[in-house]
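so my prof wants the structure for this chain in the tokens format not the other one, which i didnt know existed until like an hour ago. anyway here's the sequence
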Amino acid sequence: MRSVLWPFDLSWDEVDPARHPFDHAAAAREVRSLGPARCVPIPPDVSIVDPAMSAWSHGEGDLWARSMSYALMERYGRWAVGWRWAHDEGDLDGGPVGSWCCPRDSITTPEETLDRVVAALCEWREWLESLAGRFDAYPLDPARIEDQRVGRGRGRRVRPARAGCGCGR
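here's what i got, hopefully its the right format
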């Protein structure tokens, strides 16, 4: 059994913004009200290449990020786990989110860390809203579905359609 819910395993029904209300303006308050927001871990005061940093990042840091994912999921629905779907070699590799990378690079002070979570959640949501707009602008005709196979569709898993660079730092 996997302990991480991967955003690229979600169906369109699980992430469709029309099915899951979200108030961008209230996101900072909502994130700060969640349990993990009260216990943001402090990374060790060592170089990022120190083995202690790697151990912290993959241990306490990752545990906190997973806890935040589950808290966001409980508050907003399964779609919210995409907040960690970082560009490049971040937490969940290869996604559309540039505001979060991984515990090592994104967890700093509690205030900065929570700001990053909020930014990443909003960035993920904006990407989903943009994707929904593309689906609405270019709908598939169910009667002609075989002729319209182009690797996209509401029944497919969510996959990012753009590439970016850099981690969340």
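also thought this was worth mentioning. DSSP finds five helices and no strands in the chain.
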